[in-house]
C-alpha cells in the first residue's frame, strides 16, 4: 500500500479517488490503541504498520512514538511517524521527523517525497520543488516527482513550465490518473477548455467512478460553452457522490450550468 510507504503526489491535487493512500471510510471510528502491551521496537513498528494500513493514523502515530521510546533514532519509526502526522493534517509536525530522517540520509526517496508533500500543503512550493528536484535527480523515472514538480510550478503561476513538465509524465501507464488531472487544471488556467476536457476524459477512462473528475470535466465543458455536456457530467457527479458536502457543491454548479446562456 502506498500509505505505508510514501505519499502519492497525485493526492496533492485534493481530488478523491486518485491518491495511492490507504485510509478509512469517512466517519470511521477506531478503538483506542494501548501501547503498553508493545514490549519491543519490532512489536511497536508492526502495530504502527497495521494501524496505518487500516487508516487509523492517530493510532499509527502512537505506535511509532512507542517504537521511538525504544530507539529515538530509528529511521523507520521516525519516517512513519512523520507520515502519520502528515495524514492527520499536522504538516509542520510531520516535517520535524522527516527532517531528522533526511539529516541522516538526504537521498532517502520515500522521506523526500513525504517532506515535499508536507511543504506543498504548507504552501512552501519552492522548498517542495527542491525536494522533488532531488528525487528526480536520484530517480529520473519517478512519476511522483515529475507530477509534484509540475504542481509546484503551477502554484507559482508558471503554467507553461508546469505543462512542459507534465509532458514528460508516462501517460501511457493505464493506472495513472494524476497527470491527466494536473494537465486538465493547467489547461483550464490557460483558457484551453477543450484540451482540459480531453485531459479529464482520459482520467475518467482510468477512474470511471470518480465524481470529482466528472465535475471538473463539466466545468471545462461549461467554460467552453458546451452547456449540454456540462449538465450531463454534473448529474453523473451527483449520482456517484457519497460525500454530502461535495454533492451540495455539485448541485449548486449544476444549477449554474442550467441557468447559463
Number of strands: 0
Shape: globular
User: Which stretches of 5+ consecutive residues score pLDDT under 50?
Assistant: 1-5, 15-22
**What's the alpha carbon Rg, rounded to whole Å?**
20 Å
Largest sheet: none
If you average the pLDDT, what whole number results? 86
Structural class: mainly alpha
TL;DR?
With 261 residues, the protein is mainly α.
What does this entry look like structurally?
The relative contact order is 0.09. It contains 13 helices and no strands. The model is unreliable at 1-5 and 15-22 (pLDDT under 50). The termini are far apart. With 261 residues, the protein is an all-alpha fold. The chain has helices at residues 41-54, 57-70, 75-87, 91-104, 109-121, 125-138, 143-155, 159-166, 178-189, 193-206, 211-223, 227-240, 244-259.
Could you outline the blueprint of secondary structure elements for this entry?
Layout: H1 41-54, H2 57-70, H3 75-87, H4 91-104, H5 109-121, H6 125-138, H7 143-155, H8 159-166, H9 178-189, H10 193-206, H11 211-223, H12 227-240, H13 244-259
Helix pairs in contact: 1-2, 1-3, 2-3, 3-4, 3-5, 4-5, 5-6, 5-7, 6-7, 7-8, 7-9, 8-9, 9-10, 10-11, 11-12, 11-13, 12-13
Structure keywords:
66% helix, mainly alpha, 261 residues, single chain, 13 helices
